[in-house]
């Protein structure tokens, strides 16, 4: 099992490097390139990685690394500079999500 996972990781890394190079050429953000890699290499794309259990584990690892990368982009200093937009936008997003969910559940009853 571990050998298959290692092979899948090597395939994903190779595909992601190619897609990252192309994305860099066309100024596409790396996060979009990684998402495209997952779509292409996954079981519903070109099916280089077919085991759904392995795909789920790799996806969870990818989410952790994505959140880590996003966290590295923000500093307390930057958040303090955009605090008004941060709190207003965050509150608005949460409020609208709650409102939309409430309306949707009322319509479904």
Sum up the structure in keywords:
Cation/H_exchanger_TM, mainly alpha, 5 helices, membrane, Na+/solute_symporter_sf, single chain, 2 domains, 109 residues
Word description of this protein:
There is one protein chain. The protein has 109 residues and is mostly helical. The protein has two domains: 1-74, no CATH class; 75-108. 83% of the residues lie in helices and 0% in strands. It is built from five helices and no strands. The chain has helices spanning 2-25, 30-41, 52-73, 76-81, 83-108. The N and C termini lie far apart (46 Å). It comes from Candidatus Protochlamydia amoebophila. Pfam families: Na_H_Exchanger. One of its GO terms (cellular component) is membrane. This is Cation/H+ exchanger transmembrane domain-containing protein.
Mean pLDDT: 84
Which residues form runs of ≥5 with pLDDT under 50? none
Structural class: mainly alpha
Q: Helix-strand pattern, N to C? A: HHHHH
The gross shape turns out to be extended
Beta-strand portion reads under 5%
Sheet having the most strands: none
The number of domains is 2
Helix content: over 70%
Number of E strands: 0
Radius of gyration: 19 Å
Query: What is the helix tally?
Result: 5
How far do the termini sit from each other? Answer: 46 Å
InterPro entries: Cation/H_exchanger_TM, Na+/solute_symporter_sf
GO cellular component, one term: membrane
Main location: membrane
Domain Cation/H+ exchanger transmembrane: 16-105
């Amino acid at each position: 099992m571990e050998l298959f996972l290692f092979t899948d990781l090597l395939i994903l890394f190779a595909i992601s490097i190619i897609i990252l190079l192309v994305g860099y050429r066309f100024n596409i953000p790396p996060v979009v390139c990684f998402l495209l890699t997952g779509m292409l290499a996954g079981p519903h794309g070109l099916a280089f990685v077919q085991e759904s259990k392995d795909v789920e584990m790799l996806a969870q690892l990818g989410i952790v690394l994505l959140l880590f990368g996003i966290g590295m982009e923000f500093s307390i200093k930057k958040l303090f500079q955009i605090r008004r937009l941060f709190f207003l936008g965050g509150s608005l997003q949460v409020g609208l999500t709650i409102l939309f969910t409430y309306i949707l559940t009322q319509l479904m009853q």
